Amino acid sequence: MIRLSRYEKLVEHITDCDRDILEFAAARAAVFRLLARLWGEELSRDLAELLSRPPLVEVLHAIADFSMPSRVEDRDLQQWAVDYCQLFVGPRGHLPPYQSVWMDRRLAGEAAASMERFLQLLNYRPVWSQRLMADHLAIQLDVMAELLERSTRPDAFSREERRWLADLLINYFRQHLCWPQRLLDQVARRAITPLYRSLAKMTDEFLRQECELMLGSGPGFDVHGCDSHP
Questions:
Q1: Domain 5-89+97-225: which CATH number of 3.30.2290.10, 3.60.110.10, 1.10.3480.10, 1.20.1600.10
Q2: Cα–Cα dist 97/200, whole Å
Q3: pLDDT value for 71
Q4: Which of 11, 51, 117, 143 lies deepest, with the highest CB count within 10 Å?
Q5: Mean pLDDT by 10 residues, the chain (230 residues)
Q6: How far apart are CA 223 and CA 175, in angstroms?
């Protein structure tokens, strides 16, 4: 049985419309959305310029020594695109950011089927779902953001529905966001640009914090700490 008292207490406070907690959930959702976008596609100029300006650049640097040039040049975008492709796209020796690859040792394994069930349950389709399989890390991060955003709308749900959503948040994280440790370690070692080394570190730090918040354990974040799928 999972001990979830800290996080259950957090989510139950949503019932009382506690402003600070709602804002905290919204802020966490925004980080999940940002990470999803960075994992899901090559870095665009618009996002790169946003990341290179204060206050976001200072916040990200404090979290993971995240570094961006003060002015984004075409050569920067090209280097990041090359790094993204050699890390995640291939054709050979890359690191597919799919849970099935790292847990089931094949594409489209049980992790992908489990993610499809979650997507159907939520009636939600992330923007990348037409070109990425459901257990891609970007989609998993995006779904977590969606769950957190729904938790910030307490007036839209009954008390029972809010409790169901709290349980779903925890179970979803436990089944689909505890696995990436080996992937993140490999990305940090094999990235050729500071951007993607920082992305691996930032994702690792954030997921560890979320793991401690929801599951009550920081070191438990690794591929072996995940359960099987629903």
A1: 1.10.3480.10
A2: 11
A3: 85
A4: 143
A5: 42 46 78 92 91 77 73 93 94 92 88 93 84 94 92 69 81 93 96 93 90 67 41
A6: 10
Dihedral over alpha carbons 199, 127, 174, 119 (to 10 degrees): -170
Nearest to 43 by CA among 207, 191, 185: 191
pLDDT recorded at residue 20: 63
Q: How far is residue 15's CA from residue 129's CA, in Å, rounded to a whole number? A: 32
CA distance 148 to 90: 33
Q: Could you state, in order of their start, the residue ranges of all structural domains in the chain?
A: 5-89+97-225
Q: Are 72 and 81 in contact (CB under 8 A)?
A: no
Q: Backbone phi, then psi, for 177, in 5-degree steps?
A: -135, 15
Instruction: With beta carbons less than 8 A apart as the criterion, state whether 17 and 25 touch.
Output: no
Q: Which residue has the tokens 């997921």?
A: 207
The Cα–Cα gap between 117 and 46 comes to 33
Q: Are 229 and 114 in contact (CB under 8 A)?
A: yes
Question: Helix %, strand %, coil % for the chain, to 5?
Answer: 65, 0, 30
| Residue 93 tokens, joined | 């020796």
CB-CB contact of 77 with 45 (8 Å): yes
Structure letter (DSSP) for residue 96? -
